[in-house]
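Predict the 3D structure for this chain.
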Amino acid sequence: MAIVIKSAKEIEAMRVSCLMAAETLLLVGEKLRAGMTTDDINTIVHEDTIRRGARPSPLNYRGFPKSVCTSVNDVVCHGIPGPQVLKDGDIINVDVTTFYGGFHGDTSATFYVGTPSPEARRVVETARRSLDLGIEQVKDGARLGDIGAAIQEYVEGQGCSVVRDFVGHGIGRVFHEDPQVKHYGKRGAGERMKAGMIFTIEPMVNLGRWEVEVDPKDKWTVTTADGSLSAQFEHTILVTKSGYEVLTKRPKPLRMSENVATIML
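Done. Predicted structure below.
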């Protein structure tokens, strides 16, 4: 699949779907509480997405049974919402993708449930900062490897690791398209970024080793191989002539937890 350079009209349509996804994620942050189930989060996301006249991209995507991914503690990504009750001290990544007007908008954040442990705070804040550093590498003419190198250098400097089995991706009319955006690598390597490219950057950061396992039963849930905590943040990014635009930038700060003042723009 070739890399698709978006037209001005397509970029404007992406701004709309991405803003919808960002606003739905904000709503999750406002409602998230200990005692909720991950299926409660699925209901929030599904109903808010439908209310907007959009649809949740994950629902029935390659057989995925729910409208959002909810990944708790040692779950790296693709957690399936269900009866699991969130407890004080948990961390949970909520990954929202909205399809509207023929285009997908994709974003995620990891939330604290109640008060986090020092270990939980370290992996979450490392993941959050690594996304910012990766985004800062985006500009017309730069290499995709610059993104991965910046993320890997920072994460490993914090004593954590970057998952290698799952990467960012091009996005637009298709949920997952070229290019692949690795969160590790070497500066100066990989495809050149060009104005009009749109892709996600979504580093998955483990407190322990980077290796992961896929649940053999549901074929979706990815966990850390060593049982350590994992966190992730994601934005959809447009490459511009002068740098980048964060299409899923939230219109107000994200509420990370009912008990913790940490916010992320």
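The helical segments are 8-31, 38-51, 118-135, 144-157.
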